[in-house]
Amino acid sequence: MTKFKTITYKRILNLGNYESKHLEATIEIPEGITALGAEVACSELMDFVESKIREDHFKSMNEEITKIESHIKHLRKTRKIVESLTESDNNPGEGGDF
Q: Which residues of 24-54 are buried (b: 16+ CB within 10 A; e: fewer)?
């Protein structure tokens, strides 16, 4: 049987530029819970806090990745157009009106 009644876990995430995000969660330990049960509850609390504190950060990273992928797609299309124009300039007798 455990002798403590609550478990608190606090996480501070450095966001850079002198900014940080704080998240703290506390759970109550029911009477009669074993040490193993309390350990499991503690691990679940830690996992919860770790996932929640990074949630917004992961979302903004995914949005940035999507923007970059879109830009890369646009650049590839532009490169194909430039390559086709370059090929037609280098081969004026092939299919051209020259």
A: eeeeebeeeeeeeebeebeeebeeebeeebe
Burial (Cβ within 10 Å: 0-12, 13-18, ≥19) of residue 6: exposed
Give pTM, 2 decimals: 0.55
Give Cβ neighbours of residue 1 (< 8 Å, ≥ 6 apart).
32, 33, 34, 35
pLDDT digit string, tens, across residues 17-37: 888 989 999 999 988 888 898
- Cα–Cα distance, 73 to 61 (Å, whole number): 18
Query: Per residue in 60-74, pLDDT tens?
Result: 888 889 999 999 999
Integer Cα distance of 9 and 33 in angstroms: 19
